[in-house]
Amino acid sequence: MSRSVRLWLFLSAGAVIAVAFAAACTGLPHFGTPVHPYGDRAVAAALSRRTANTVSSVNFDLRAFDTLGEESILFGAVLGATLLLRLARDERKEWPEAERVLPSTRLFGALLLPVTLLTGVYIVAHGQLTPGGGFQGGVVLATGLHLAYVAADYRVLKQVRPLAVLDVADAVAAGAFTALGVAGLVVAGAFLANFLPLGTFDRLSSAGLVPVLNAAVGVEVGSGVIVLLAHFLDQAVEITGGGPARTRFDPPEPE
Amino acid sequence: MNANTIDILVAVVLLAVVVAATVAALTRDPVRQAAVLAMLGLTLALLFTVLQAPDVALSQLGVGTAVTPLLILLTVRKIRGAGSPGGQPNPGQPNPEQPDPEQPDPDRPQPDRPQPERPSRRERRSR
Amino acid sequence: MNLLPFLAAAWILLVGLYGLVTSRNLVHAVGCLAVAQSSTYVLLLAVGYRRGATAPVFADLPVGSPVVDPVVQALALTDVVVGAAVTALLLALVIQLQKRHGTVDPQNLTELRG
Q1: Hey, what's the torsion of the CAs at A207, A211, A214, A219, to 10 degrees?
Q2: Which of A154, A192, B92, B121 has the highest count of CB atoms within 10 angstroms of its CB?
Q3: pLDDT < 50 positions in chain B
């Protein structure tokens, strides 16, 4: 398809989408409407389960099955990227050189690294009370770890990042979500049903299964993002070689 | 703050999001696009905060301003290192025997020890 | 104002798709997909917004006060993180394409045919 044909096809399709979308929007409740039937029911249900952060309650209690799907997508994406970016036969790794870093940067990073990691853990642990949870805290943990790359260099990052452990942690956390669901099936009679005591409202130990699932997702997101970034960093920094298609199909030369 | 002020605030932030999204889609150079995407992530996080969604804002702040642009930058670095500079090599003449066209990084100090010799393809494979 | 956020979401979707369709570089195309995806967050949160309400977190809020819809926030929240993972997967595919075909221009790829 030539470029102009494609553009015209898109413009006509885009015009149809624009008109249909705008027409559909006029039928929606107005922006800022006071009528939220689903929201009201979700809030009532979350409060009855003694979860202060209703978003976490929706994610990890009321509609935890959806989240199982989401974290499976995440796990699948990490797995796929790992598979695609593994070391090919015609590639090799180069040990990167040590790089000089400004002392102030080094100090700043060394101070900030523990603070960031602590913040990440806090966000995961308080997901049932305040804004936060496994998804957000996991991202904070993963990006915080990469301060080691900014403050020192790639070799230091590799030392503070046990990839083999994180690979396993990612898989175990993904499996733990399902295992907790099965435990709910056995103990409480429904998949992912809450079987832990609900505790006192607005306490760290409230909301039953929510903090546990939060922790599982936090570990999975954190280790998943670190593993993803590790493979991309490997590709960009370490791995060289791997020419265009032709080289790959050469017959192996006799030893 | 009364409701009217918040409405205006939402409209302003929404406008910023729309502008950032438009610029991001129309920026052809991936490196610049990554920077604009980080800006878009920041404005989106601001919008979510104004719309009373701190959970989503927190998530967007980490993912949109850090992870996605970083992934794009790393991909660009890999692609420009593997192909010819500019990311659009001539597909007609792939020449695997040529050394990498990547220029030595001028910012990086050259190592004292002699540059290790690039192993031939046979050696590479036998490893 | 009643329609503005919805129309903004539509615009972001369309401008992202336009960038995707006219892209000459797959890395840029992935970036445009991220732009198009961000329209879903805007739409979801605009649907769930309630004027004069606060965030749906009752940690320091009297029970019964008006809050915005938590359901759409939960949807958008997971969407953000999963979107990043999918972006990473697509970028990994782009790297693999560059390695095997020596180009990231979709126009050239159709001519190569494997």
Answers
A1: -170
A2: A192
A3: 83-127
Confirm if B53 and C73 have CB atoms less than 8 A apart. yes
CA atoms within 13 A on the CB side of A79: 12
C67: left (phi over 0), alpha (psi -120 to 50) or beta: beta
CA distance C100 to A84: 12
The reported pLDDT for the residue numbered B104 is 44
Neighbours of chain B (3+ CB pairs under 8 A): A, C
CB A52 within 8 A of CB A128: yes
- In the predicted structure, residue C19 carries a pLDDT above the cut 80: yes
Say if the Cβ atoms of A142 and B67 lie within 8 Å.
yes
**A131 and B96: CB-CB below 8 Å?**
no
Residue type for position A156: V
Cα gap A90→B4, rounded to integer Å: 63
* A243 Cβ under 8 Å from any chain B Cβ: yes
- Contact B32/B69 with Cβ under 8 angstroms? no
Scanning C86-105 for CB atoms below 8 A from A yields 86, 88-89, 91-93, 95-96, 99-102
Q: Which are the contacts of B96, defined by CB distance < 8 A and separation ≥ 6? A: A243, A244, A246, A247, B121
Local mean pLDDT, 10-residue blocks, chain A (255 residues): 82 91 85 82 81 82 83 88 80 71 80 87 83 85 82 75 83 86 79 72 71 87 88 78 45 47
Q: What is the pLDDT at residue B36?
A: 92
Looking at the complex, does the CB of residue A224 fall below 8 Å from at least one CB of chain C? yes
Beta bridge pairs of residue B42: none
Chain A residues in contact with C85 by the CB 8 A cut-off are 73-74, 77-78, 224, 228
Q: Tell me the per-residue pLDDT of C42-81, one tens digit each, with 9 for 90 and over.
A: 998 888 888 877 778 777 777 777 888 888 888 888 888 8
Q: How far is C64 from chain B (nearest CA, A)?
A: 17
CA distances from A154 to A70, A120, B110 (A): 31, 22, 17
Q: What is the model's pLDDT at position C112?
A: 53
Cβ A138 vs Cβ A120: under 8 Å: yes
